[in-house]
């Protein structure tokens, strides 16, 4: 081999295949004038250039393998045209028009040989990656999204003015209107969630995504209830029963499993009071069926909000359920070191932020407010206050 190539070509590999493991190789190829650092840099450079499997250099390396297989009768070419492509390959430059056919042909040959790895001595590549990967440090990088700079407090203040108006309307004119209580209750839950995002500066966080998800779900639910109230007068009470019924189930489970942990975030005794309070108020037996047995996806479909579900809610759900896409985006960093196979590393120092949820929070909140406006008529001066923010 040394008659054909200079020993410097393979000398960098003596960094991996040392005298203790490969004495023969090391003896012939070690080159003391190439420092350890240079050997490492040469290998790193080549790996960077070949990290794209479609690159010219990657295809050149494949060519050597394909040629070897062909010469050793392990690969049979179908026609003269293919033989010509293989013969011409090392003779012409990559910008030659012939290469437009030759490169895909080489890559296709590799795909057509599923047993290519069968006779490969995997000990060598395994040892290579094992050793080279620990020789250098990780080169971590993250995508930095702009921190939310909008005046979220001011938006929340304008929003509060609207809620304050609606609250007055409820207390003064219809304190016993159950429909209004449900609508304002759901909307207020959305208000508290968006206020949390603003107060605690959660726009660029994982929990911010959870907030958008709830805002969307609440908005779709309100729309769904309104759409169905014509045919189901009791829908407002059914919605309440479904939710309180779920609390009742949890309370019952806690009684069956007593004693429960005192410092848990779930206060079972308090939940029991809430359940009994609801029962006393409405004098009825609890109904614990699923509310309408329809998923949020079906409800979104029914109220023509497919886009909110498909483009936002589903994405936010990935974060809520801890699916890998969400984990990859929020909790892992990419390493740019080719010697490390471009692996991922856990982001334990919380360096990776997320794109701000604030514009979407406002978008869904304003849809919710507009819906309430259709029913209760919010004064233009108040309504304009929140709608204008979204246009900025
Ligand atoms: Zn790394």
Integer tally of domains: 2
- The largest sheet has its strands arranged as 1-2-3
Helical segment tally? 17
Largest sheet properties: 3 strands, antiparallel
Q: If you average the pLDDT, what whole number results?
A: 91
List cofactors, ions and other ligands.
Answer: zinc ion
Shape: elongated
Spatial extent as radius of gyration: 33 Å
Secondary-structure element series: HHHHHHHEHHHHHHHHEEHH
Helix content: 55-70%
How far is the N terminus from the C terminus? 69 Å
- The structure class reads mainly alpha
Q: What proportion strand?
A: under 5%
Task: Give a count of the beta strands, DSSP E runs of length 2 or more.
Answer: 3
Contiguous low-pLDDT stretches (5 residues minimum) are none
How would you portray this structure in words?
The protein has helices spanning 7-10, 23-29, 36-49, 56-71, 80-88, 99-111, 123-133, 152-173, 178-199, 206-228, 235-256, 268-282, 296-302, 306-320, 324-331, 358-376, 380-391, and strands at residues 140-141, 332-335, 344-346. With 392 residues, it is mainly alpha-helical. A three-stranded antiparallel β-sheet has the order 1-2-3. The N and C termini lie far apart (69 Å). The model has no long low-confidence stretch (mean pLDDT 91). The chain binds zinc ion. The site of zinc ion (ZN) has 5 residues, from loops.
């Amino acid at each position: 081999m040394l008659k054909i190539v200079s020993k410097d070509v393979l000398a960098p590999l003596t960094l991996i295949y040392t005298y203790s493991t490969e004495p023969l190789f090391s003896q012939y190829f070690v080159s003391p004038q190439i420092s350890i650092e240079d050997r490492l840099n040469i290998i790193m450079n080549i790996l960077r250039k070949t990290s794209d499997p479609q690159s010219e250099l990657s295809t050149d390396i494949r060519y050597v393998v394909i040629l070897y297989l062909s010469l050793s009768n392990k690969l049979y070419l179908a026609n003269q045209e293919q033989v010509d492509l293989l013969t011409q390959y090392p003779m012409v430059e990559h910008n030659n028009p012939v290469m437009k056919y030759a490169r895909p042909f080489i890559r296709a040959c590799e795909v057509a040989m599923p047993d290519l790895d069968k006779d490969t001595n995997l000990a060598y590549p395994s040892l290579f990656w094992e050793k080279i990967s620990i020789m250098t440090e990780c080169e971590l990088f993250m995508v930095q999204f702009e921190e939310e700079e909008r005046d979220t407090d001011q938006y929340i203040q304008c929003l509060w003015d609207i809620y304050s108006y609606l609250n007055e309307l409820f207390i003064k004119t219809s304190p016993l209107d159950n429909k209004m209580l449900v609508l304002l209750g759901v909307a207020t839950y959305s208000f508290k969630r968006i206020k949390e995002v603003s107060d605690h500066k959660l726009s660029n966080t994982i929990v911010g995504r959870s907030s958008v998800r709830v805002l969307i779900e609440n908005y779709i639910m309100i729309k769904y209830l309104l759409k169905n109230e014509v045919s189901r007068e009791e829908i407002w009470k059914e919605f309440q029963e479904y939710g309180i019924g779920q609390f009742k189930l949890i309370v019952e489970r806690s009684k069956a499993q007593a004693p429960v942990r005192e410092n848990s975030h779930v206060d079972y005794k308090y939940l029991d009071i809430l359940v009994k309070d609801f029962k006393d108020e409405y004098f009825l037996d609890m109904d614990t069926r699923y509310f309408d047995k329809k998923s949020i996806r079906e409800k979104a479909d029914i109220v023509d909000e497919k886009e909110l579900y498909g483009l936002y809610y589903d994405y936010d759900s990935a974060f809520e359920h801890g699916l890998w896409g969400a984990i990859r985006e929020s909790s892992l960093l990419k390493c740019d070191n080719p010697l490390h196979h471009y692996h991922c590393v856990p982001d334990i120092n919380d360096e990776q932020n997320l794109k701000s949820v604030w514009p979407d929070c406002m978008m869904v909140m304003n849809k919710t407010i507009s819906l309430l406006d259709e029913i209760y008529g919010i004064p233009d001066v108040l309504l304009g206050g929140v709608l204008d923010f979204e246009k900025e």
